[in-house]
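ok so for the tutorial part 2 we go from a plain amino acid sequence to predicted structure tokens. step 1 is just haveing the sequence, like this:
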Amino acid sequence: MLDERIIKAGEVLEAAKEKINERYRLGYHIMAPANWINDPNGLIQYKGEYHVFYQHHPYDENWGPMHWGHVKSKDCIHWEHCPVAIAPGDEFDKGGCFSGSAVDNNGELTLIYTGHNYIDEEQNTFYETQNIAVSKDGVTFEKYENNPVIAEPPADSIHHFRDPKVWKHEDKWYMVVGNSTKDNIGRVILYTSPDLRKWDYVGVLATSKCELGYMWECPDFFKLGDKYVLSFSPQGIEKKDGKYPNLFQTGYIVGDYDYDKNEFKHGDFYEFDNGHDFYAVQTFLDDKGRRIAIGWMDMWESHMPTKEDGWCGALTMPRELTLGDDNKIKMNPIEEIELLREECISSEENVIVSENNSFKIKTSEKMLEIDVTFDILNSDSKELGLKINGSDEEELVLKYDTDASQLTIDCSKYGKEQDSTRKADVSKNSKLSLRVFLDRSSIEVFINDGEAVITSRIYPQKNIDNIEFFTSNGEVKIESLKAWKYKQSIQ
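step 2 — the prediction. this is what the tokens look like for a chain of 491 residues:
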């Protein structure tokens, strides 16, 4: 029998869908049917279908008591909305069903999540537990009758104890959890279990020396190539030397791990994405052996004008992770994204652009892929790039500084008047390749085969007029340029 809370949430969402203003609704990114979403949860390929869950408040366009929203897909691109998977209100999750993960336990899809419980909501004092819910069909879930499966954090912790990520190694289940010490130092801790129900605390997987914030949210631990990666979202890192401009960050450390000793020797922390809006990434391994990542395509305490339209929040497109020779992660769109190419609107080679002679693609499309390669080696340009020009002087600028080898996005005339720029450092190369994905109120830029990525939400008021390729001095050759109109893949 379906939980009454799930039925009610579905009825509210159906009614809310009818009132949405569509002006900023995305065409090929995961959103809820209406109202609020944040972190992606429970990414998994189960019985041949891709499943993505997400933090969801079905009753309001603002954050509230967290439910788990749910979509599924056969190709990881075309998404179908499913009923809300789990709703809060039981003794162990009265304040919300917070973030977590999903595993296939011998055909039983199991969600592992944090139960958030307020002691005093006005003072934001709370405690957190780890719980599970199970499904035979991948759509309808029942919470485990003996929840919580982990009732409290280790004795040296404070109340921050959330976002379990679970995987199986050999014959044992492992769980990492985001945590904070009594000295307010962020860390990730490790548990093991034979059956997903009884868990033993192993110890600390990784921690900082105060330099990486007071809490590490949304941890994920996985093997990539012959190395191990711990990704997490630290809260409380101080802005320094132009780094960490966002309120919170999401990044990773890479190293070697010994399961027997729980010993993780790793290098420095790097951010995954240099844009305004990327947080709480989670990954999964699919049947093709790919490590695929999806993040929340927004940022806490940022301007979110879609709230006026009856919805808020979206997820990034799925990205495949690979490890470079320098032990840094590259992110690129999964190959299935090309299924959305509807019409090629430009295909050019060896186009010379100068200060007085830019090149423009005339288009009004708001869902586009642009793939361009500049010849840097044989150019005397100091600055070059592209602009998305709108009517009434709106523009979004991607500008590359050849001396600094740095790409800047400037959204000051495209819906982000405050704190409008972000920068990505790129290794010096003979070419600059940009793969740009535009989707009404989002832009994702993949630089030099995913060496760096910039993701930002954008809020143009007017229509697009053209895409302009420019240089501010000298001249540069566009070695190749293609642009495609994109199809809708989610409602």
